[in-house]
Design brief:
Radius of gyration: 26 Å
CATH class of the largest domain: Mainly Beta
CATH topology of the largest domain: Thrombin, subunit H
Number of helices: 11
Largest sheet: 6 strands, antiparallel, barrel
Helix content: 10-25%
Shape: globular
Strand order of the largest sheet: 1-2-3-6-5-4
Distance between the termini: 73 Å
CATH architecture of the largest domain: Beta Barrel
Strand content: 25-35%
Structural class: alpha+beta
Number of domains: 4
């Protein structure tokens, strides 16, 4: 225990006395060893809030459809029963006029949201906008002219593995707490928490209720929004692996929502695959990293900039990208209408390519259709896929054509194992180019179905019925 305290004191001294990350400094006195995080906490903690949500859930007894019980109880069983579902989380005040950032899953579908400050002041809050794909939400509280503490958003790109960070939030509803740890890893893209994956990993204790709270550096700046933990036990407690959304992404979503009410992201229009250890030498790279471009959308910013299939994208604005998830993250943090400087390796030659970033086009017309009736696609929602719909649904790599975008659980389509992203090519030998073609094919009254789809680049044909 004594050794742990000494190590902690050394970390504090190193970070506070040498913020420029120069040479390590050995404590020279007992007073130096007793250095504390208190000044940082005093600065940051007042702007980290507790968020309490309330949702009214209406349910009808499952026995209502049973003829036996309907005979004895009649219509009384059909009266919906109401119960109040409550949850808690954390948030960060980022603007003095009462703008709060939190996780989308903290406030999703809530009927009432209450924000409680560290000094016990309470305010009702409304949702300005939410972005399910990054799991971020922006709230607004009416302060009535009262002053509020604010935490600045820092530069998460300046973080390094080993930096000391503090996690502030309201775990388990016990009240505001502060935990300390280090940055364990950066740009974690294999964590399936949200669609844009490039998380800060930390061993600072993050527990249920910390979601939406601040990950703070030792200058008192928000470098991340705490979002999730890895837990191997049933209790869901921290095991030293927590994940935070980088402040770089938070800034982009905040600016987009506060200016337009919803999150809008730029579109590159190029898809690719990771550069593996097996193929990197053939691409004339020094090591396996980057994104090997395997598709460029016609008319996209990537095509107009001259990106070609076979190029390897290694950096965005000087920031290294290791895989397609990292590339998507970097593009998503940029501004629509702006530009990006891509470092591309083509035939062993490195070059810089400037790309003008635009919103994904909403063409062709979606013509969204929820399929009903008795046919193989009953319970599926289909549409003419276009870049805007692909971004909204998280199907960025979806091919153009009539595409399944949603499947209702328990439906015929679900039982036949169709999936979102499946592109319907033919039905009974007839090509399906648009939703109108699919509608006509499903209304043909056929008893036997031969269906051809494309899934993840593979063409599959199945025959069903008679």
């Amino acid at each position: 225990m004594f050794a742990v305290r000494i190590i902690t004191a050394l970390l504090v001294l190193f970070c506070l006395a040498a913020p420029s990350k120069a040479a390590d400094v050995v404590p020279q006195s007992g007073e130096q060893i007793r250095l504390t995080f208190s000044p940082v906490v005093k600065q940051a903690a007042p702007a980290v809030v507790n968020i309490y949500t309330r949702k009214i859930v209406r349910t009808v007894s499952p026995l209502f459809n049973d003829p036996f019980f309907k005979h004895f109880f009649g219509g009384q069983m059909g009266v919906p029963q109401e119960r109040v579902q409550r949850s808690l989380g954390s948030g960060v005040i980022v603007k003095p006029d009462g703008v709060v950032v939190t996780n989308n899953h903290v406030v999703r579908d809530s009927d009432e949201i209450t924000v409680v400050l560290a000094d016990r002041r309470e305010f009702e809050a409304t949702v300005v906008g939410a972005d399910e794909r990054t799991d971020l939400a922006v709230l607004k509280i009416n302060t009535g002219g009262q002053s509020l503490p604010v935490l600045p958003l820092g530069d998460s790109d300046s973080l390094e593995v080993g930096d000391v960070v503090l996690a502030i939030g309201n775990p388990f509803g016990v009240g505001q707490t502060v935990t300390m740890g280090i940055v364990s890893a950066l740009a974690r893209t294999s964590v399936g928490i949200s669609d844009y994956r490039s998380f800060i990993q930390t061993d600072a204790a993050i527990n249920p209720g910390n979601s939406g709270g601040a990950l703070v550096d030792l200058q008192g700046r928000v470098v991340g929004i705490n979002s999730a933990i890895y837990s191997s036990g049933e209790g869901g407690g921290s095991v030293g692996i927590g994940f935070a959304i980088p402040a770089t992404m938070v800034k982009a979503v905040l600016a987009s929502i506060t200016s337009g009410g919803k999150a809008t992201r730029p579109w590159l229009g190029a898809s690719g695959q990771p550069v593996t250890a097996e193929i990197f030498q053939n691409l004339q790279l020094t090591r396996p990293f980057g994104v090997l471009v395997n598709g460029v959308h016609p008319g996209s910013p990537a095509e107009e900039a001259g990106i070609k299939v076979g190029d390897v994208i290694t950096h965005v604005n000087g920031r290294e990208v290791d895989d397609p998830e990292a590339l998507r993250f970097r593009i998503a943090t940029l501004v629509v209408g702006g530009s990006a400087q891509l470092t591309v390796v083509r035939a062993g030659v490195e070059k810089l390519i400037a790309v003008k970033l635009a919103t994904p086009p909403d063409r062709p017309s979606r013509d969204v259709m929820e399929v009903g009736g008795h046919n193989p696609f009953s319970g599926a929602t289909v549409a003419n896929m276009n870049p805007a719909l692909a971004e909204e649904t998280g199907l960025e790599h979806a091919d153009s054509g009539v595409t399944v975008i949603k499947i209702q659980q328990g439906s015929i389509a679900h039982r036949l194992m169709f999936r979102p992203g499946d592109v319907i090519l033919k039905i009974n030998g007839v090509a399906v180019a648009m939703v109108a073609d699919l509608r006509a094919a499903l209304n043909s009254g056929a008893n036997r179905w031969t269906i051809t789809i494309r899934r993840a680049g593979e063409t599959i044909t199945v025959t069903l019925g008679g």
